[in-house]
Amino acid sequence: MPTDSKMAKFLQSYGYDLILGAIAAIYVLMAPYTKVEESFNVQSMHDILYHRHRLDSYDHLEFPGVVPRTFIGAFIISFFASPLVFIISFLGFPKIYSLVAARFVLGCIILSTLRFFRIQIRKKFGYQVESFFLLLTTLQFHLLFYSTRPLPNILALGLVNLAYGNWLKGNFYSALNFLIFATVIFRCDVILLLGPIALEFFLTKSISFWKTLKYCVGTAVVTAGLTISVDSIMWKKFVWPEFEVFWFNSILNRSSDWGTHSIHWYFTSALPRRSDCISINFSHLFGILLDRRVPFLVIPVISFVLLYSKLPHKELRFIISSVPMLNLSAAVAASRIYKNRKKTIWKLANMVMLALFAISAGCTVFTFMASYNNYPSGYALKRLHQISHPANVKGEEWVHIDTFSAMNGISRFCESAFPWRYSKEEEMVVEELQNRNFTYLVNEHPSVDGYKCLFSEEGFDRVELRQGFPPIVLVKRAKVYVHQDMKADDQLHKKWPGLLMSIACMHSYVMAEDEEKDLGRQMIVTLIVSRRQRMPMGRKKSWTISSQTHTPSPIYMETRRSQPHGSLALLHADPVELLYYWFYRARHDSTTTSSTLATILTTTPSSIVSRAHNVYEFLKPLFSFIYSIPVVHPFSEHIT
After folding, report:
1. What is the largest CA-CA distance in the chain?
2. By the 8 A CB rule, do 517 and 403 touch?
C-alpha cells in the first residue's frame, strides 16, 4: 500500500512531464538529424564535447556563418550532456548517439521550464485548465518537436517560459529579468515581447519605474558582459553576437535575402499550422472572452506577433515564444466548454472541440511524417557508411559534402572515424570535382563526371490531394545523391568472403616476388603490403601528396613457404578468425606460426584487432585447454 501511494504521488507530480518527455523523445529518436538553422549550436556542442580547449579545430572558425552566435547555450547543454557522451564514446558508439544525448538534455531543460509554467497555471486556473494545457501541447506537433532542437529561439523559449511562470506567480521583476537575459544573450527579437509586457506592468502599476530601472539595467549589464567575454574568446575577436544579429536583421534588413512573406502571414498561416486549427481558434474566439484574466496575459503576446509581422522575413520558429501563452488561453476556453458540455448551447461546442482534437492529432502525425523525411542527406551519409567497406582499406576515404547536403541533415555528429575524412569546401563547381581526389560525393546532382551514382535518398517534396483514401498523401522525390569515384572501384575495395578488416587499401599495391634460391628448395614467397597517403587536392587548410611521386612505405612484410593467396586470405580475416586461426589452426599449419599471426595483429593499426590480441594474451591459459576441443568456425573455408 505505501508503494502504491508513493507511485500515485509520483505520477501525480510528474505524470504529465513523463507524457511530454516521451513524445519529445520519440521525435528525437525518429528524426535525430538537424538542419541548417540549428547548425551553429550543433557544431558548437560537437566541438566543445570532442575538441574541448583546441579552438583551432572548431568548425565556426572555418565556417562562421552569416552572423556570429553565442556559445553560452552550447556550453550549458554540453556540460550536462558530457557524462552521457563520455559513456557513449567509451562504449564505442557512433557520434550520432552523442547528438541524441545532447538533444535529450536540451529537451529536459525546456520541458522543465514548461513544467514551472504549467504548475503556475494549475495554481492560478485549476487542475482542469492544466490538463487541457497538457492536451493541447501534446496534440500540437511543433512545440514538442522544436523543444529538443538547439535553435537560439528554443534556448530563448526556456527563459520565456520562466518569465511566463513568474508573471503568473506575481514576480514581475523576475519575469522582466528573464526576458532581458533571453534578449541580450540568445534572441534579440525577444525585446518585442519584453516591451509590451513591461508596458502592461507599468499601466497596471504592477512595477515602479525606478525599481525597474535599478533591477533591469543591472541584469542587462551583467548579461551583456557575460556574452561579450565568453564569445569574444570563442570567436577570437571582440563581439556581442546578438547585437550583430539585431543590426543585420533589423537595421540592414538583410534577413529578407532568405525570403519574404506578407504582413498577415503569422496570423493566416503560421499560427494556424502551429496550432493545428485548435489553439488559435479557441484563444481568439473564446479564451479572451470567457475569462477576464486571460486578456491581460494574451494581449502582450499578440502584440509581440504583430510587431514581428513588420519584419519581411518570417518563420514559425521566430514566434515560438508565443505558443505557451496562447495554449493557456485555449486551455481556459476548452475547460469552460467541457464544464458546460451537458447544457444545450454548449453541447455543440463540445462536439466541435472533440472533432478538432481528432483533426489535430491527425495533422500532428501527418506533419511528423513530413518532418521525418526532411533530412535526406543525414540518411544518405548513414547509408554510405553502412554499404561501403572502409575496414578493407588503409588509405583515407574522402567524402565531399556540398552546401545543400550540409543544410539538410549532416553535421559533425554524423561523421565516422578513420579512414573517413570529410570536406565541406564551398563554392566548388561540379566540373571541378573530377579533378579532386574525393572518394565519395554527397550532393544534390544526379550525375557528376568521373563518378558513378551509388544511390539516391528521397526527401519530402510536397503534399498532394487525391481521390480515395487517404485523401492527402506526402510526395517524395530524390534530393540527395551519393557518388563514388570510378577510379576507386577496384578489387581492393571489394568485400572478401568473411572480411571485416583489411590491410590492403585503395592506391595500395601488393607485390609478390618469387625467388628460387636453388633448384632443390621450395619456392620462397615474399609478400609486401604498402600504401600511399592520399588527400583531396585544393582542400582548405590541408596538405597534398602526389600519388605519382610519393614513395610507398611498407606496413607489413612476410616471408614464408606458401602461395600469395593464402597470405592475402589471412590478412583479410576479421579478428575472430585470426584468433581462431591462432590458437586452433596455427599449430597444425607448418607454413605459418603464431609469431607470424602475432605480427599481423600488432602491426595492423586497428583498435579492434589490438583488443583481440590483448584478449588472447589474457585468456592464453584457457586457450591451452581449448586446444584439445574440436572447433568448427563458420568462416573456416576462407582461411587458408
Report:
1. 111
2. no
Alpha carbon separation from 579 to 476, 556, 615 (Å, rounded): 48, 19, 9
Please report, for residues 368, 382, 410, 526, the alpha-carbon distance to residue 32 in angstroms, rounded to integers and kept in the order given: 13, 12, 10, 50
Strands (E), 299-425: 397-401, 420-423
Of 114, 147, 145, the residue nearest 130 (C-alpha): 114
For residue 55, give the C-alpha cell: 579552438
Q: Is 541 left (phi over 0), alpha (psi -120 to 50) or beta?
A: left
The C-alpha cell at 524 is: 620462397
Contact 62, 540 (CB under 8 A): yes
Calculated CA dihedral for residues 555, 559, 561, 565, nearest 10 degrees: 20
Q: Residue 106: CB partners within 8 Å, gap ≥ 6?
A: 77, 147, 148, 149, 150, 154
Tell me how crowded residue 370 is: count the other CB atoms within 10 A of its CB: 16
Distance between CA atoms of 114 and 140, rounded to whole angstroms? 15
Q: What is the pLDDT of residues 50-107, one digit of tens each?
A: 998 898 889 888 888 888 999 999 999 999 999 999 999 999 899 999 999 999 999 9
Contact (Cβ atoms closer than 8 angstroms) between residue 277 and residue 360: yes
* pLDDT attached to residue 485: 86
Residue among 421, 324, 427, 443 nearest 376 (CA): 443
- pLDDT tens digits, residue range 380-436? 999 998 887 655 555 788 899 998 999 998 999 998 888 889 988 887 888 888 888
**Pick from 181, 185, 196, 318: which is nearest to 250 by CA?**
318
Residue 495 has pLDDT above 50, yes or no: no
Instruction: Give the H or E element holding residue 555.
Output: strand 553-560
CA-CA distance, 486 to 315, in Å (whole number)? 42
Q: Is 259 left (phi over 0), alpha (psi -120 to 50) or beta?
A: left
Strand (E) or helix (H) holding 513: strand 509-515
Q: In terms of Cα–Cα distance, which of 72, 146, 199 is closest to 321?
A: 146
Amino acid at 194: L
Ranges of H-type helices in 71-95: 72-90
Helix (H) or strand (E) holding 216: helix 209-235
CB atoms within 10 A of CB 420: 18
pLDDT of residue 620: 60
Smallest CA-to-CA distance from 586 within 555, 627, 633, 614 is with 627
Taking residue 586's Cβ as centre, other Cβ atoms within 10 Å add up to 19
CA distances from 12 to 1, 7, 119, 130 (A): 16, 8, 12, 12
Q: What is the DSSP string of 249-299?
A: IIIS-GGGGG----TTHIIIIIHHHHHTTTHHHHIIIIIHHH-TTHHHHHH
Identity of the amino acid at 637? E
- Grid coordinates representing 452 are 558513378
Residue with cell 574522402: 398
Q: What cell does 522 get?
A: 621450395
The DSSP element (H or E) to which 161 belongs, if any, is helix 152-169
Residue 410 phi/psi, 5° resolution?
A: -95, 130
Which phi and psi (to 5°) does residue 393 adopt? -125, 160
Backbone angles phi, psi at 533, to 5 degrees: -75, 145
- Give 278's contacts (C-beta < 8 A, 6+ positions apart): 136, 139, 140, 330, 356, 357, 360
Residue 552 DSSP code: P
From CA 530, how far away is CA 511, in angstroms rounded? 9
Residue type, 238: F
